[in-house]
Amino acid sequence: MLNSTAISISGLSVRRGGSLVLPDLSLAIAAGAVTGLLGPSGSGKTTLMRAIVGVQQVEAGTVTVLGESAGAPVLRHRVGYVTQAPSVYGDLTVRENLRYFASVLGVAPGRVESAIATVDLGPHAGQLVRTLSGGETSRVSLAAALLGEPDVLVLDEPTVGLDPVLRRDLWETFHRLAETGTTLLVSSHVMDEAERCDELVLMREGRVVATGPPGALLERTGARDLEGAFLALAEARETS
Amino acid sequence: MSPRITLATAARVLRQLRHDRRTLALVLVVPPVLLTLFRYVFDGQEATFDRVGGPLVGLFPFISMFLVTSIAMLRERTGGTLERLMSMPLGKLDLLLGYALAFALLATVQATLTAGVAFGLLGLDTAGPVWLVVVLAVGNALLGMALGLFLSAFASTEFQAVQFMPAVVIPQLLLGGLLVPRERMAEVLEWASAVLPLTYAYDALERATQIGDLDAELWLDVAVLSGSIALALALGALTLSRRTP
Lengths: 240, 245
Hints:
Order of helices and strands of chain A: EEEHEEEHHHEHEEEHH
Low-confidence stretches of chain A: none
Helix content of chain B: over 70%
Shape of chain A: globular
Mean pLDDT of chain A: 91
Strand content of chain B: under 5%
Structural class of chain B: mainly alpha
Strand order of the largest sheet of chain A: 6-7-8-3-9-10
Distance between the termini of chain B: 25 Å
Distance between the termini of chain A: 34 Å
Oligomer: heterodimer
Number of helices of chain A: 7
Radius of gyration of chain A: 18 Å
Number of strands of chain B: 0
Number of helices of chain B: 10
Largest interface: A-B, 33 and 25 residues
Structural class of chain A: alpha/beta
Mean pLDDT of chain B: 91
Order of helices and strands of chain B: HHHHHHHHHH
Largest sheet of chain A: 6 strands, mixed
Shape of chain B: globular
């Protein structure tokens, strides 16, 4: 299942506000798997995700998604993106938000209710988004990305501030989607989410420190947990 | 662009307004109240009220829609919804026309209500047909909306966005001929007013309410006004980029 590549990046460099956020990044992301993008805050995860979605101005390099150049018009139906800050309308209800995005995506209105159910917002469907809690609001944003059943889902820290039970359920949803062939790229700065991923990309200071399945990274470093593996890999890189 | 997405966008903008009853009430109630105020400020000077009152009915929608759109678009830009829409199969024209449609509808209600109060209750006289004043008002609303959308790209906070109102709207009102006829201004200002779109909006409204002839001059004003709306929308479209730094 992990034999094909959904996203390939080569020589990507991005400058934001005068500083080189991604100096020269190359990476391949497997199709039909949940890939975790891990690294501390400021390591360039969001910039990399924006480049994959095609909303980031890049300085050099190529980003190919499903065989097309990132941001190509055909990809607007096939790539779903959830930003870190929930990008939904606070002055609309949950359902009104999703109905609007559904008609922009051209998907059946019935998808709205199933997306609401997936993120467990049924009881709040008729509530104005600005009256929801932070976690609930980010779930509305996630539901909007699930509407179009995209082939690639790029999720920037989707589980921050969520109830542990819901977090587990969402990770199950991510894996269920991957089983049906969806490629997921999920960023997190919490290492305990790393073990839930099929593949990992560890980032630090705009560079990829290591890639591979969680088990292989543990084995390679001999660390007890992924936090330890990250430290070992980051230090090995600094001394080399 | 697609009619489905354009209509869905217009419906969404109207739905947002429906949830914001206070803004809706202010947009609809303030212009008639202000006109009533004008009526009694010029108590006993019916001629003056007749001169400025008619054009004001058509100018209020410009001010309201400029303000509402600049804040609404600023929120789309800073709240991330614009970025989300730009990563979806939505054409820039869908967004622009969706907003235009929603605010044209709101402006029609606003102008009809204001015109009803002005020409019905306050005894304001117009030489031309009332419908023409309402149509010109909707045109001005679109101009305000398009300028607000464009200028929202240059504001990073709502404080900045509201300051564009006095900066952009008041000079145009002053130079457009509302207070003093243009030919009586300093010559430099008369030239400056010739390149400001609201000058033509005011001129059209003045011709419609004072002279009442649907003459060539009026249609020239309408043509300039339409061109200005198209230009402002095009400039607005340039500020909607799919890729940002």
